[in-house]
Amino acid sequence: MIAPLIRLFIREPELLAEHLSAYLELTRADLRRFISHLRRQIALLCLAAAGGLIGSVLGGVAALLWAAQHEAHWVFFAVPLVPLVLTSACVVGLYRFKQSEDPLARLCKQVDADLKVIGGSHDANATEHESSIGPRADGRNAS
Questions:
Q1: 8 vs 122: CA distance, rounded Å
Q2: Reduced to 3 states, what is the DSSP secondary structure of residue 104?
Q3: Rg of the chain over all Cα atoms, to the nearest angstrom
Q4: Contact at 8 Å (CB) between 141 and 131?
Q5: Is pTM beyond 0.70 here?
């Protein structure tokens, strides 16, 4: 697997340099996507936590006021409902982020594809080498 890379580096170093620069560009773009993905997740998580905490506190205050006045007013339910709706929207957004594609998936696919090509060229070189040797011990050709 290493031998084809060494031959390629010796014969055409500019091709390898272009390939590495393309890898760096892909890595840079995927890391930017990953960082923005992470920032959105952190922001949604902080908003969900803050909304849940504020909604719980306002709900507790509304329950205390309701118990003190012995009558229910629509404001007692509406005020805590706003941050709780915000919290549920943030939780749905977090769930959608979990379902979305991995930000580094393109880089992993490219690495896998390159390893298959390198492995395929290694296998092709091995079969070429075996066929040049001639017939095997059982009388058949090595290919």
A1: 13
A2: coil
A3: 31
A4: yes
A5: no
- Contact (Cβ atoms closer than 8 angstroms) between residue 23 and residue 110: yes
Around Cβ 70, how many Cβ atoms within 10 Å? 6
Tokens of 93: 């957004």
What is the tens place of the pLDDT at every residue in 17-65?
888 888 888 889 888 988 988 899 999 999 999 999 999 999 999 888 8
For residue 69, the 8-state DSSP code is: H
Q: Are 69 and 76 in contact (CB under 8 A)?
A: no
CB contact at 8 A, 87 and 54 = no
Match 């908003």 to its residue by tokens.
47
- Give the three-state DSSP class for 72: coil
Answer whether 130's CB lies under 8 Å from 9's CB.
Answer: no
> Are 97 and 44 spatial neighbours (Cβ–Cβ below 8 Å)?
yes
Helix 105-133, helix 13-69: angle, nearest 10: 150
